[in-house]
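cron nightly-structures :: item 1 of 1
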Amino acid sequence: MKIANMAAFTFKRIILVLTILFLFAVPVITALNVEVKSPEGQLSPVLNEGQKIEYQMFVTGLPQQTSFILLETDLEPYNNTPLWNIPDVERFGLSNTSPALMQKKIQLAAPSDLNIPIVITVSGKVPSIKQIIPWNGVVLCNSVRYTGYRLYSVQPYDSKGYAVGNGDTKTFSIKPESDCIPPSDRIDMVKDADLKKNIQDLSNKGLWQEANKLIDYSAAQPGTVTYLVYGVSIVIVGFVMFVIGYRTKKCPKPDYEQDIDREV
C-alpha cells in the first residue's frame, strides 16, 4: 500500500515538472496594440483625394520573439516631408537622413527594450485618383479602386523572417474630387430607358463629369428633358471620340513600326 502511494506521489511530481517545463518552453506571444491619435481627433474612414493627413502611432505589446517590425502605408509623402518621423530613430537601425523614412514600406530593427512603447508620427497625403483631361474641360476618369487603402499596417517578424502573432492594419476609402465621381450609384435614378442607356455609355467611357451633369439635369426637368439630353449626349460622345482620334493620329509611330512599314 505504501509503495503504491509513493509511486502515485512520484508520478504526480513528474507530471508537475513536465508541465512547468512545457510552459517555459512555449514562446510567449503578447497581443500587439496600435493606438492612433490625430490633431483632428478621430480619423474618418473616408478621406478626400489629395488630403494631407498627420497622426501618431503608439505601438505596444510586441512579442519577445520580435527581431524586426514591418510598417506599411498607402499615404504618399509630400513637400519632402518624411512619411515616418521616429524619435531616436537610431534605436531601430536607421538614421534621420535615411531614404527609408520617405518610403511607404519601412523595416525597423526591434529595439533592445520591447516594453517601451514605440511612438511614430506619420505625415502624408491621400493618393490622388488619376484623371486624363485631353481637351477643353472634357474629363476622362480612369477606373481605379476607392477602398482598401492602408492607413497603416504593423507586423512583427522573428529572426527567421516569420510573422510573429497577429499584426494590426487600419484601412480607409478615398472620396474622389468632385469632377471625377463615378455615377454608377445614381444611374438608376433616371427613369427614361434611352436616356439611361446613353448615360451608362458615357460612364463606361470615363465621362463621369458629363454623365453626372446629365443625371442632375434629368432630375431637375423629368418631363421635357429626354430628347434634348439624348441629343447632347450624342454630341459629347462624338466630340470626345473625335478628340481621342485626333490625338492618336498626331502621335508618331514608334521607330520599329516605321521600319516595318519601310520593309513592306
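cron nightly-structures :: done
Helices lie at 2-25, 193-204, 208-220, 226-250, 255-263.
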